[in-house]
Amino acid sequence: MTKLKLACVQMRSGVSVPANVAAASTLITEAAKQGAELIATPEMTSLIDIRPGMARPKIVSEPDDTALAAFRDLAARLNVWLLIGSLAVTLETETRLANRSFLIAPTGEVHARYDKIHMFDVEIGDGQSYRESKSYAPGEGAVLARTPLGNIGLTVCYDVRFPALYRTLALAGADIICCPAAFTETTGKSHWHTLVRARAIETGAFLIAPAQTGQHEDGRRTFGHSLIISPWGDILAEAAENVPTIITAQIDLADVAKARKRIPALQAGSAEYRLKIVR
């Protein structure tokens, strides 16, 4: 099969895990009713709470995560591939957490896991300081999932600023690359569309980027504008800002090969170059 329907779930996750799971499940179910075969949710689907000390008591290990169990059951019930953009889970060997993305098969089994590699440690001038590495341990490697729908590359949010990761996934054969996000309003306005479209153009892959949006219960504001982008960089579907919703797009994976043939940038070899510094 080369043709399939993709869906992004755009959310405004809050401080209650059960409420977030219920909201996500409603939107996932609607996307399935519209015929989507691969449905993706944003980063931190089950919980957004940046208030000091408030989130940690709600975060558990992967085997004990009720949100993951609910989403696995839902994928099986709806018979869809479900990408849960990320959940926070505890680690056995680390005091820090993992920001983990889960690709769930229509059987309800977890087909692939990916821990976010690049930590959001920035000062962006919105009145908040972000130090993701204080609470989360970075992942150790890229993940490509081979599925009947095609080859799916997994990334999370801040990863989109690191094109080498996307090139690695494309060279391994990614047809679709997922970038679930919770972009801040400040960075989103300036960079979101440019970054997501650039990664699609560079890799010649479809980019599916479900996002968090609006004013969250904990005071954080996220940008929204969930996107589905073609391998040529065209916006196939976009969600409005401040609206929890779904977007869908019918795609043809044959467009991946066409884009890579037209612009054979992936055949250019290593990204390392000899450098001459002139003073």
Characterization of the model:
This protein is of the alpha/beta class. The chain has a single domain, classed as Carbon-nitrogen hydrolase (Nitrilase/N-carbamoyl-D-aminoacid amidohydrolase), CATH 3.60.110.10. It is about 25% helix and about 30% strand. It has 6 helices and 16 strands. The strands form 4 sheets. It has a 6-stranded mixed sheet with strand order 5-4-3-2-1-16, sandwiched between helices. The model has no long low-confidence stretch (mean pLDDT about 95).
Radius of gyration (CA) equals 18 Å
Query: Could you give a short account of the major beta sheet?
Result: 6 strands, mixed
CATH-defined architecture: 4-Layer Sandwich
Fraction in helix? 25-40%
Q: What is the overall number of helices?
A: 6
Shape descriptor: globular
Number of domains: 1
Structural class: alpha/beta
Q: CATH first level: which class?
A: Alpha Beta
What fraction strand? 25-35%
Distance between the termini: 56 Å
Can you tag this structure with a few keywords?
single chain; 6-stranded mixed beta sheet; Nitrilase/N-carbamoyl-D-aminoacid amidohydrolase; alpha/beta; 25% helix; 279 residues; globular; 16 strands
Secondary structure blueprint with pairings:
Layout (H helix, E strand, L loop, with lengths): L2 E8 L6 H17 L4 E3 L25 H13 L2 E10 L6 E8 L5 E6 L5 E3 L5 E3 H4 L7 E5 L2 E5 L8 H9 L4 E3 L6 H19 L2 E4 L3 E3 L5 E3 L3 E3 L5 E4 L6 E8 L1 H9 L17
Parallel strand pairs: 1-2, 2-3, 9-10, 10-11
Antiparallel strand pairs: 1-16, 3-4, 4-5, 6-7, 8-9, 11-14, 12-13, 14-15
Helix pairs in contact: 1-2
